[in-house]
Amino acid sequence: MSVRGARKQYGDFVALDDVSLDIPSGSLTALLGPSGSGKSTLLRSIAGLEELDGGAVLIAGDDVTRVSPQKRDIGFVFQHYAAFKHLTVRKNVAFGLEIRKRPKSEIDDRVDQLLDIVGLTGFQTRFPAQLSGGQRQRMALARALAVDPRVLLLDEPFGALDAKVRADLRTWLRRLHDDVHVTTVLVTHDQQEALDVADRIAVMNAGRIEQVGTPRDLYDRP
Ligand code: ADP
Ligand code: ADP
C-alpha cells in the first residue's frame, strides 16, 4: 500500500505536508520522529481514520477511506491500550472473533495459539488489572492479531513501559513479525527502537518525511 501526496491541516497548522510513502506488503516500517512531527496523524490516515485535505492512502489502488470499515482489515494498538476491564485475558483476545460469530472450537484454538505466540498461556483467566504493563501490551497485540489483519498499526505501543521491558518487547515484536509477516507500521520517537525492529525507517519532521531507507542505509550500521 502507499501514501500519495497526503496533506492534513488543523486550522493553520500543517500536520502532514505532502507526504508520500510506499509500504511494501509484509514489511515492518517505522515512522520515526520527534513529538508533533505528524507520525500519529499519518498512522491514523493509513487506518482511514483521518479525512485528508489532499492526497490519499491507497490499498491495492483503492482509496482507503472508500473501503468500508469492515473490509479495511486493520489491527490497531495504541500506547494506552483500552482493554475491557471486566473481561479476562482470554475473552479480550477472543473479542474480535466472537463479534464475527466464528465457531467456538475455532475461537478456542485460535486464542490458544495467540496466547502461546505472545507468551501469555498461563494468564488466560486473569483480568487486565492483574497483568504488568508489558503483558497488557502483548495481550493488546494478540487481540489485534486475532482476526488476521492484513495491516497492523502500532502507535508507540511500548511508550509507557520502562526501558528493560521495552527492550524485551522489541526483540519479541521482531520475532513475531518474522513469524507472522503481517504488514506493520510502528510509530516511535525512539531511534533505537526503530533500528532494532524495522526493515525500513521513514524519518519524519514537521509534517514531512525527510528520509526513507533501511536501518543500514540511514545510519551506516554494520
Ligand atoms: P506525533 O505523532 O509525531 O507526535 P501528531 O500527528 O500527533 O504528531 O501531531 C502533529 C501535530 O498536529 C501536533 O502539533 C498536534 O498538536 C497537532 N494535532 C494532532 N491532532 C490534532 C487535532 N485533532 N486537532 C488539532 N491539532 C492536532
Ligand atoms: P502492493 O503489494 O502493491 O503494496 P497492496 O499492499 O496495496 O499491494 O495490497 C496487497 C493486497 O493486500 C491487496 O490484495 C489488498 O487488497 C490487500 N490489502 C492490503 N492492505 C489491506 C487492508 N488494510 N485492508 C484490506 N485489504 C488489504
TrEMBL record:
The chain holds residues 1 to 222 of 337 of the full protein. This is TOBE-like domain-containing protein. Residues 1-222 form the ABC transporter domain. Keywords: ATP-binding, Cell membrane, Membrane, Nucleotide-binding, Sulfate transport, Translocase, Transport.
